[in-house]
Design a protein that fits this description.
The chain is mainly alpha-helical. It contains 9 helices and no strands. The longest helix has 17 residues. The N and C termini lie far apart (about 35 Å).
Length: about 180
């Protein structure tokens, strides 16, 4: 995993991309693609947050390096991975930004709901869970209900949702009962 992060830094150096040099959008697009490939080989949610943070930073610095749709997806991914490093406010902001860029990426609503949940905006979270639980995601036709439950399970497995945080834990259990 450390090797993947080092590979990303090496690739950036090879393209001479840093804060002082303005690469063309083609180089930025290549770098974004490479970082996404490296991220795909890394199974650590925490490392993926670092990868997608870099992707979004590059895309914002080098406009037109990727489409609004793709940037929206990247913000959605960054939102999800931010939960695993307990950056809950950031996750909420990233989900909102992803939906602002392209609201057809409706899977981001799963991250928006989690963002509201972890920032104690339970009414807003419940509204999303109730509104989407019987719908299918447009990206892969998986029911939102399954995505919601998988997210809860992933966050529990990684120690983000725990009984120690009884307020969040109880709200998650309440939402699970509504979804099921």
């Amino acid at each position: 995993q450390c090797g993947l992060l080092k590979s990303k830094e090496l690739y950036k150096k090879l393209l001479n991309i840093n804060k002082n040099i303005n690469p063309n959008n083609q180089d930025a697009a290549k770098l974004i693609t490479t970082i996404k490939l490296l991220s795909g080989m890394d199974y650590s949610f925490q490392n993926k947050e670092a990868f997608y943070s870099e992707i979004v930073d590059i895309a914002n610095n080098y406009k037109n390096s990727q489409s609004q749709h793709d940037l929206s997806i990247d913000y959605g991914n960054l939102a999800f991975y931010s939960f695993f490093v307990k950056k809950f406010n950031n996750a909420l902001d990233y989900a909102i930004k992803g939906l602002e860029l392209d609201s057809t990426n409706d899977y981001i609503y799963t991250n928006l709901a989690l963002g509201y949940l972890f920032t104690n905006k339970f009414d807003k979270a419940e509204e999303i869970y109730n509104g989407f639980k019987d719908k299918a995601r447009t990206d892969n036709q998986i029911p939102f209900k399954e995505s919601f439950l998988k997210d809860f399970n992933d966050l529990e497995t990684n120690g983000i949702i725990t009984r120690e945080d009884s307020v969040i834990y109880e709200e998650v259990e309440k939402i699970r009962n509504v979804i099921l």
